Amino acid sequence: MSVVRDHAEPLAIVFEDDGLVPNNILPFLVYQGALTLDPKQPEQTIENLFETNDWGGTWRNGIFDYLHYHATVHEVLGAARGHARVRFGGDRGQELEIKAGDVAILPAGTGHQCIKASEDFCVIGAYPPGAKMEITRPTPENHAEALETIPKVARPPADPVTGKHGALMRLWR
Questions:
Q1: Which first-to-last residue range defines the signal peptide (predicted)?
Q2: Spatial separation of the C-alpha atoms in residues 78 and 163, rounded to whole Å
């Protein structure tokens, strides 16, 4: 059985730099309902998928309830259980409902913050090879530094959901 539903195509959104959260010229991608999860071990299903597509450093948790971004690395968040309302793109971004089976791919600099989540909400986070994840809060100083680091972040070798020929490879050219 395939974990990824046939013809999974992500929603693509480009968030503007708001002066505090830099965001990215690359689109933020969301695969909605793209994954068929093993009900007994949904976390493992997502971890295996990400690792198969060369995204590692996986962790299991929620999403911080404060606005932050990562200026040195791209991040993927796969919802394994429950649901949450998450604001992406900073205070002037967009709130989306994320539920089990959804995957969000955040290009470096994309602001994100959990607004509310179900008790059982769990996401799997992962990163492309070679980069170190750092949590950055939106301040004028951090914004200025991020504008220098974000363009230097390498493109991932594969889409964490659909692999080397996936939508990310096409949309992040």
A1: none
A2: 15
Q: Is 127 helix (H, G, I), strand (E, B) or coil?
A: strand
pLDDT tens-digit readout, 124-147: 999 999 878 999 999 999 999 999
| Domain ranges within the chain, ordered by starting residue | 11-158
From the number of C-beta atoms within 10 Å of its C-beta (0-12, 13-18, 19+), residue 119 rates as exposed
Q: In Å, what is the CA distance from 132 to each residue of 34, 93, 96, 169, 173? A: 27, 25, 27, 21, 22
Residue 83, strand partner residues = 99
pTM for the whole structure: 0.95
Q: 101 and 37 in contact (C-beta within 8 Å)?
A: yes
Query: Which residues on neighbouring strands pair with residue 68, listed in sequence order?
Result: 112
159 by Cβ neighbours in 10 Å (0-12 / 13-18 / 19+) ranks as buried
Burial of 148 (0-12, 13-18, 19+ CB in 10 A): exposed
* Tokens representing residue 87 in the block: 């604001």
Domain 11-158: state its class.
Answer: mainly beta
